TrEMBL record:
The active site is at K65 (proton acceptor). The lineage of its organism: Bacteria, Pseudomonadati, Pseudomonadota, Betaproteobacteria, Burkholderiales. Homodimer. This is Shikimate dehydrogenase (NADP(+)). Residues 6-87 form the Shikimate dehydrogenase substrate binding N-terminal domain. It comes from Polynucleobacter kasalickyi. Coiled coil: none annotated. Residues 113-196 form the Quinate/shikimate 5-dehydrogenase/glutamyl-tRNA reductase domain.
Length: 284
């Protein structure tokens, strides 16, 4: 039986085993998927032992996505662009790494509409979680992506990094200092919290900024979607957006969608059509 696992610290809370068991059921695949805890300083050793024992693939979660990236012999274009890896597998004795977090987010957002083409996206944050979503948004041919971060230089660095790909597909990519939110006069279709504030009781938006965003986005109509990449709780950001009447989603759908891509890569499925992510999301 092929063995897979999700590696992290902590890991007990992970919903990945449940998600992958459901995908295995849907596609009639005989596989096992478990939880793998690792001490922070023993990550590389734990990964090596897992594959040496015949393990087929790993999902990687906090805080190991950077370390996983550094270990790989081969990286997909999404992994290279993201600088972090959430999927590992062995092929011909080489460790491969991919990143499906961004694609997972884009696929989850697409549930709301057939395509993200022409949409305008505001992304709050420029850390590890956000790096991985820029390329998938560009490939989805959104109209514009504006990255806002407390530390402006990090937002600018992301813009510089993805400038060429964005230009090639006609996507406007820009960076903005946090306080400039109050000067924005263009409404957005999608507002995403990609900061780590969801894990705390903070929000990347001050009340004034949240009010201002609500004011400008109101001119779009109430279908403006706000999204927090964190799941399992209503974050302060989500609450702020809800208070202004926006449609709010948490990152659970993104988790299921990134898992679907991992499952497809590992099991070499020709496409994702056989995986019913909506049913899986309902059962979580
Ligand atoms: P992750 O892997 O979760 O993205 P990270 O790489 O440490 O973690 O990035 C955290 C992100 O959340 C950053 O964009 C950070 O802003 P800075 O680059 O200015 O540090 C953002 N962030 C964290 N706490 C924040 C807060 N209280 N207000 C606004 N942004 C915050």
């Amino acid at each position: 039986q092929d063995v897979y696992a999700v590696i992290g610290n902590p890991i007990a809370h992970s919903k990945s085993p449940q998600i992958h068991h459901l995908f295995a059921q849907q596609t009639g695949q005989n596989m096992k998927y478990g939880l793998l805890f690792s001490e922070v300083e023993e990550f590389e050793k734990t990964v090596q032992e897992f594959f040496a024992a015949g393990g087929k693939g790993l999902n990687v979660t906090v805080p190991f996505k950077n370390k996983a990236f550094a270990m790989c012999d081969e990286l997909t274009s999404y992994a290279k662009a993201a600088g972090v890896v959430n999927i590992l597998w062995m092929e011909n004795g080489k460790l491969f790494g991919d990143n499906s977090d961004g694609l997972g987010l884009v696929r989850d957002l697409m549930d709301e509409s057939d395509s993200l083409k022409g949409r305008s996206v505001l992304i709050l944050g420029a850390g590890g979680a956000v790096q991985g979503v820029i390329l998938p948004f560009i490939k989805a041919e959104v109209a514009s992506i504006v990255i806002v971060n407390r530390t402006f230089e990090k937002a600018l660095e992301l813009v510089n990094r993805f400038e060429q790909e964005a230009a090639a597909l006609g996507v406007h990519l820009g960076a903005l200092e946090s306080h400039w939110i109050e000067n924005l006069d263009e409404p957005f279709d999608i507002v995403i919290n990609g900061t780590s504030t969801g894990l705390t009781s903070n929000s990347p938006l001050t009340n004034i900024q949240a009010n201002h965003l609500a004011m400008i986005c109101e001119t779009k109509d109430k279908s403006v979607l706000s999204y927090d990449m964190v799941y399992g709780k209503t974050t302060v950001f989500m609450q702020q957006m809800q208070d202004h009447g926006f449609v709010v989603k948490d990152g659970l759908g993104m988790l299921v969608e990134q898992a679907a891509v991992a499952f497809q890569v590992w099991r070499k499925l020709p496409d994702l059509a056989k995986l019913d992510t909506k049913i899986v999301l309902k059962t979580l």
